[in-house]
Structure of tRNA-dihydrouridine(20/20a) synthase:
Amino acid sequence: MSEFSPHRFCTAPLLDWSDRHCRYMWRLMSKRARLYSEMVTTGAILHGDRERHLQFDTTEQPVALQLGGSDPQELAKCARIAEDWGYTEINLNCGCPSDRVQSGRFGACLMAEPDVVAAGLNAMREAVSIPVTVKHRIGIDDMEDYLGLTRFVEAQAGAGVDTFIVHARKAWLKGLSPKENREIPPLNYEMVYQLKQDYPHLQIVINGGINSLEESLQHLQRVDGVMLGRAAYQTPIILAQVDKQLFGEAKGPDAAHVVEQMLPYIENELQRGQRLNHITRHMLGLFQGLPGARRFRRHLSENAHKKGAGSEVVEKALTLVTQAA
């Protein structure tokens, strides 16, 4: 498996978390990671505040837009819009298990309708020149284990899709909350490895329960790529080691330098009307495990939400860390 796969290391689409402010910070730490947006529904793009949903800083590239939807025409329209905005990939969500998603006929429930998914992916592929990919579970409810998974994958491969991001857990659509669906269904990495073995021509990216780059390297012996979600968010400085450990390139900045590099971005965003805490909420875990981390978190949590709060709040929080160190 080539170390040059564009999906060798990815950050997950995290609803309410992986917004453009978060992705900007992540990009400061890794030049090679492929970043994914939060899931955005086709309805939000076609009928909502398009700029709020699609805006991003060009320094985030390569950045992919994750779409939620099932109507081929709507998906194709949104894919064209996303390409015009400059996204480098469109990813279809077939893994989110929330009730709200099921009622809208998108997310994990679509694994029961592989032909519907294939029609949507094919429509998007015909509408754009950028890659179209799919993120899904290994199964849902009582879907027959590996056979059900291969039926789903083969249908999408038949529509021309060659990159599959596989969350190595089933989703139970009845009886479990979205949070429980991230934790209770057991991980089955072997099923994802088997998928790569049986379909060597496809790019298989593994997701779910991966907490370190050491674990990532183990997975990369069996699949083409890894995707980190909560580990990358809760301990973001892990991303500063990605380029070195997974690509053999220079490592990223330390946490203090990341904060310093965020200051001009914060100033610019505040001038555009953003609130400080909308940015700093993603920075709370930067010093996780280091001296002064609690002081840093507390100062931002207690002050960034205040009216008129500016970058001086972040600078003060940084001094609390350096003093502790």
Q: What stands out?
A: The chain has a mean pLDDT of 94. The chain has two domains: 9-247, 255-324. The radius of gyration is 20 Å. DSSP finds 16 helices and eight strands in the chain.
